[in-house]
Amino acid sequence: MLQELFNLPANLPVVASEHGADVDNFIIYIHWLMAALFIGWSSYYIYVLWRFNGKKNKKADYHGARTHVSSYLEVAVAIVEVVLLTAFAIPMWAKVVEEVPKPEESTQIRVMAQQFAWNFMHPGADDKFGKQAFDLVSEENKFGRDLEDENGKDDIFTLNEIHLPVDKKVVFHTSSLDVIHSFKVIAMRICQDTIPGMSIPVWCEPLKVGRYQINCAQLCGNGHTAMTGGFLNVDSQEDYDAWLAQNTPADGEEGAGALSFE
Amino acid sequence: MDSTEAKEHHGAEHDAGHGHDHHDPGFMRKYIFSTDHKIIGIQYGLTSLLFMLAGFFLIAVMRWSIAFPGEPLPVIGSLLNTFMAGMTSPVLDPETNELIGYAISNDLYNSFGAMHGTIMVFLAVVPLAFAAFGNYVVPLQIGAIDMAFPRLNMASYHLFLLGGLVMLGSFFIPGGPAQAGWTSYSPLATSIPTDGQLYWLIAMVIIITSSLLGAVNFIATIIQLRAPGMTWMRLPFFCWAQFVTAFLLLLAFPPLEVGALLQLMDRVAGTSFYLPTGLAISSMQDVSGGGSPLLYQHLFWFLGHPEVYVLILPAMGVVSEIIANNTRKPIWGYKSLVYSTLVLGFLSFIVWAHHMYLTGMGTKISTFFQTTTMIISIPSVIILTCLFISLWGGSIRFNTPMLFALAFLPMFGIGGLTGLPLGFNYSDIHLHDTYYVIGHFHYVVAPGTIFALIAGIYFWYPKLTGRYMSEFWGKVHFWCSFVFMNLTFQPMFAQGMAGMERRMADGGAGYSVANNPDAIGALADQFLKLNVNITFAAYALGLSQIPFIINLFYSISKGRSVESDNPWQSTTLEWQTPTPPPHGNFTTPPKVFAGPYEYSVPGAAQDYNPQNQKS
Amino acid sequence: MIKKVTMFASLALVLGLHSALGGDITGKVTLKGAPPAEVNLPFDALCKRTVKPGVTPTTRFYAADASGGLADVFVYLKKAPATPTPSEAAVLDQVSCEYSPYVVGAQVGQTILVKNSDPVLHNVHPTPKVSGNKEHNKAQLPKGPALSFSWDNPELFLRFKCDVHPWMFAYVGLVEHSYFAVTKEDGTFTIKNIPAGDYEIEAVHRKTHPNGKGIVSKVTVGADGGQADFVVDISK
What we know:
With 262 residues, chain A is an alpha+beta fold. Helices cover 32% and strands 22% of the residues of chain A. Chain A has two domains: 2-98, Helix Hairpins (Orthogonal Bundle); 103-257, Immunoglobulin-like. Chain A contains four helices and eleven strands; from the N terminus they run αααβββββββββββα. In chain A, helix 1 (2-11) runs antiparallel to helix 2 (20-51). With 615 residues, chain B is mainly α. In chain B, helix 17 (471-497) packs antiparallel against helix 18. Chain C has one domain (2-233): Cupredoxins -  blue copper proteins (Immunoglobulin-like, Sandwich), CATH 2.60.40. Chain C contains two helices and 17 strands. In chain C, strand 3 (90-95) and strand 4 (98-100) form a beta hairpin. The longest helix of chain C has 18 residues, at 2-19. Chain C is globular. In chain C, 44% of the residues are buried. Chains in contact: A-B, A-C, B-C. At the A-B interface, helix 1, helix 2, helix 3, strand 6 and strand 7 of A face helix 5, helix 10, helix 12, helix 13 and helix 15 of B.
């Protein structure tokens, strides 16, 4: 454990999102607490095993330790935990789940996981998704779209690859077609189980241009190990605009990814 | 065991204790359909040790796949192919096209993964910790002649065996056993086209029923059958631990039984308790929808978390007994231990959703569960602290049971501490479902609980057989296990930090830099390479158990005989009986005059005062 | 076992002699009308490495040549004398992250062998809809050995998919006898060794006839065989 602790900053993978460093720091703080307790206990333990070895100490003491140091120690642990909880974990989590950015200030993406790939839906140039309903979801209509809706005409659909502009908040509305998957982008420090029948938002603000691996973090069947094709492409604004222009479907045409491959 | 040979062991004292109307009940009645708590305890013990071996075998195969994905499995590859045809993946030589062996397919890996978890938790550790030790030791420690309901006790074991056999049976059906992890989350579990899941569900219902019968029996026994003078605060801590465990099983298992039945209905009767609207799965065309996959998770973890304490409390009980005995002094803070255990038992029912932080949990609910999770760490810390401080002032004997019990403390400490970053949801974002989690709970259960249980076996063995297990081989067993246990689980924390996911048949190779050279966030080679180290450490850990297995059976007839009925100079009642204890346990009904750990009482002639002796 | 094989062999021989009295049905399936554009397949990085640079794989909905000859049409006799289960397997391979061939025929009970020639993991997931035909779902390791399947009830079409690569599909025309063929690249087909008589023959194109009900026509097989041509009309 100690070895991990000293290597901790090196062991943690690259961070590329605004809140990612907070997650890492929080992990490091907790590990300092753990290290303090572990080293404290271990030193005591080794000392006691040496000092009270039966070969040396023939007669045991009926009363044993008479101090109340341990009680203070327990109180101290409790206090540190309370601090970690109220100063870090609760407010940070509140920010993650309660302050989901509004559509005006963020890129909105719908994610539909399936065995064993990621489907993405981008609202297109109008920034508005077409209407969707879970009871319309089928193998052909993966996002359960209402095909009549005008807002949906310019929606972009892709398999496995999605593009985003850098330095702008992005909200992923995650769901699944079949079983529970988990949408995890390690570099962004986001992870969200995608649950069929539910649409759950998760968000971050990517700070670095790059091509980021999407992991499926929940056992989803025999192809789980091969569900590695998903990538988050964080582009500069120009590259992103170019991608958007290239992929926006022409009038009366469906977005390429909307078509079925069957 | 041959019945005549066994009679030599048990016969003499047996007749002395129960002279009236006694005749030999015959092999079947005595060893298979016995209602004697001691025989049932031994039945549970041997069965669960066999299951533990099976569970280890499964992980040994899986570890091969993790370290060397797609490479032919050595030694047992073709054997596996014989028994589980169609699940292994034959490997052909790329040039000659000749068959060179059998690799592990993803389906097989997932099956073994699901069964490793299920077997280890429900068929190995719980029955060993609770049913085996509980059955053998609890009635003796409280001074009872047997359990409150001996026939129920027998039924409980037979149901357990039946459930276990159904579970094992699923290995031999076409399509193989369940593949959806030991948690069997719906809809995955419902959608995989193998009947293995059906076997899993039916087996679970049977096993849970068995546990419920056992739990009721323990509660009734401990409340009703304590010997005169055995007040609650004179109860050995082991009995307290078993008492609280029994309540956990009684109250936490029924929701999972219901959960399993509902999933069974989803599978066989076309209901959709856990199947939502909006599913597009080809194998499930006519799902009406409207169900909730999260409902299953809640029901599962409502059991799942108390289950952790079912695994750990009996272990703490065993460790307390051994530490008190081998430090030759009372447990420090006995009352704190008891109250902490009660609080722990209660709190364990309101922390379950910390397994589900990433299912889309809002601030209010997550605050509640984070807070309760942090609160529950306090009694755990108190228990561990009491055990640590109990060492102070002792005259410590380093025999084999004590070595295992002592190792339990720091190992369980690591397991508990690494639970902290998982218990806070903000850090869980990064660590959820990675190898960090695997490392965490294996530290709790393997070098934690299992070490404690092995300590218990070495400790109570002389009472069962009248002979010691070999000290030398015991120490070999201990040091090898200790070293390889740490070499196995320690690197997993680093892998988890690096973001390596669990439940990957290829050990994360799919996310490696080699596979995705232009991706940021791919898994660095150094963490993949650790897979090989861990695998060999795990095999060495397996080999380290051989001295134990041989010792266990060899010492039954060839071990060093005990000098007295109380070879460890212990205070508790199970040592104040003949060895091995006859049917009915005590030669005279015991009366209790003192607390459980009256060691080294100032002014006493010897350094232990048995509970049934006036001081 | 050996006895059984020789029995089948002699049975086949007898049938062969018998059918020599009849002949082959040949013909061509032609596509009329302009098919919609095929969709580019969104290959992931691993799959891209399996195709030549610059090649963009597409769907294979309407595989018509310059003359209009339509490939991948399943042609079979609606009612025909019983035939023994062929001993050789119908083969589906997975090459460059696609099933090959796209459409294959098989008799009920015949082994369908699925190979993996790719250096990537596939999962072979046949999804029959006819009751009694069992669904399977098996992962197949990179370059892993072939998996075999068979079903006992006729089904048009029994779909194979790969869940790892959501564009991968293959279709099996599963019928009760072995009088079937799949049209070649030029749209032609040959059903061999049919006993003389009058038959109904059906041509089914997966995309045009999604419910498995294709174009039926009548054909007489004499000593010099028979001829049946079809037009799949999508111009309306």
